[in-house]
Every structure is written in C-alpha cells, then in structure tokens.
Amino acid sequence: MLACKSCHALSLEESCPACGGEMSKEWQGFLEILDPENSALAQEMGIRTPGKFALRVR
Ligand SMILES: [Zn+2]
Q1: How far is the CA of 28 from the centre of ligand 1 (A)?
Q2: Which residues surround ligand 1, an ion (CB under 5 A)?
Q3: Are 51 and 18 spatial neighbours (Cβ–Cβ below 8 Å)?
Q4: Domain residue spans in the chain?
Q5: What is the overall mean pLDDT for the chain?
Q6: Would you tell me which of 9, 26, 27, 42 could form a disulfide with 36, CB atoms 3.0–4.6 Å apart?
Q7: How high is the pLDDT of residue 45?
C-alpha cells in the first residue's frame, strides 16, 4: 500500500486517485474516515472525502 504525500490517501496506484499527488511507501498509522464532516481528525487533516488515510507520510 502507498500513501499520498499531499492528501494522505492510501492506494495501490502509482499516483493518488484523489488528488493526483505523488505516492510514498514511507508512511505510518492508519485511519479510516467514514464521515469527514463529523470527524475532528478529518477536519484537522483537511480530509473531505470518506476513505482510508495514513496518519504520517514521509
Ligand atoms: Zn492525494
């Protein structure tokens, strides 16, 4: 699994399906956002779409 360096989305794609950003193998932590509008963490990370995200991406 790869994580996007800009929006932290997790994917197997070479470029991010959400924002087209660069993907990285160096990531830590896992977060599933089901309801971004009611998640303080999602808002803090700037996540607006439900999905799976990495907490930290290098
Ligand atoms: Zn992205």
Answers
A1: 16
A2: 4, 6-7, 9, 16, 18-19, 21
A3: yes
A4: 2-57
A5: 94
A6: 42
A7: 87
Using the mean position of ligand 1's atoms as its centre, give its distance from the Cα of residue 21 in Å.
5
Over residues 2-16, the pLDDT tens digits come to 999 999 999 999 999
Q: What pTM does this model have?
A: 0.82
Residue matched to tokens 């660069």: 22
Pairing mode, if any, of strands 27-33 and 23-24? Answer: unpaired
Write down the residue that tokens 């700037």 correspond to: 46
Give 38 Cα–ligand 1 centroid separation in angstroms: 21
CATH class, 2-57 region: mainly beta
Residue 21: per-residue pLDDT: 96
